[in-house]
């Protein structure tokens, strides 16, 4: 979290605590002991104002928490491009609203597919699974005879993905499965 966000939230938390103390003090001590009606109305006005500001600050905290939780459950990428060995885009797989997907292929290794975890096609071999966790996608290869590779943006090498170890995906990564490339977009 940025320093300015932390400082702003700290100030709001202090204001919120101050308003709660003020509300308690006004309602428990000032209003019951006010000598005249005009003092009582003034103290009541401060009490209403304190409730209003406390509610506004509480609403800011609720909105910030809601935005944070929503951000952690959405994909940072829009889609994946499945590129064949000839360099043609075979399929664009949209990631918005998804929490996981499978990378599958035919047993002969000539076709690769991106599929939902809930409805994989029967008879296909699973290369790996991708899961969304805390706003980041992680790729994990499953034990199989087919190898998968991962190429990072600044590396000229393609690294073999080890089985059952999650690899975090970044926007510029390219996943290799047989003769296909899966480009993160």
Structure description:
- This protein has helices at residues 3-30, 37-72; strands at 79-83, 89-94, 100-105, 112-115, 125-133, 136-141, 148-151, 159-160, 167-168, 174-177, 180-184.
- It has a 6-stranded antiparallel beta sheet, with no helix packed on it.
- Helix 1 (3-30) runs antiparallel to helix 2 (37-72).
- A hairpin with a 2-residue loop joins strand 10 (174-177) and strand 11.
- 18% of the residues are buried.
- The chain has 2 helices and 11 strands.
- With 185 residues, the chain is α+β, with helices and mostly antiparallel strands.
Strand-helix topology:
Blueprint (H helix, E strand, L loop, with lengths): L2 H28 L6 H36 L6 E5 L5 E6 L5 E6 L6 E4 L9 E9 L2 E6 L6 E4 L7 E2 L6 E2 L5 E4 L2 E5 L1
Antiparallel strand pairs: 1-2, 1-11, 3-4, 3-5, 5-6, 6-9, 7-8, 7-10, 10-11
Helix pairs in contact: 1-2
Mean pLDDT: 84
The string of secondary-structure elements, in order, is: HHEEEEEEEEEEE
Q: Which radius of gyration do the C-alpha atoms yield?
A: 28 Å
- Beta fraction of the residues? 25-35%
Low-pLDDT residue intervals, each spanning 5 or more residues? none
Strand order in the sheet with the most strands: 2-1-11-10-7-8
Secondary-structure class: alpha+beta
Q: How would you characterize the largest beta sheet?
A: 6 strands, antiparallel
Shape designation: rod-shaped
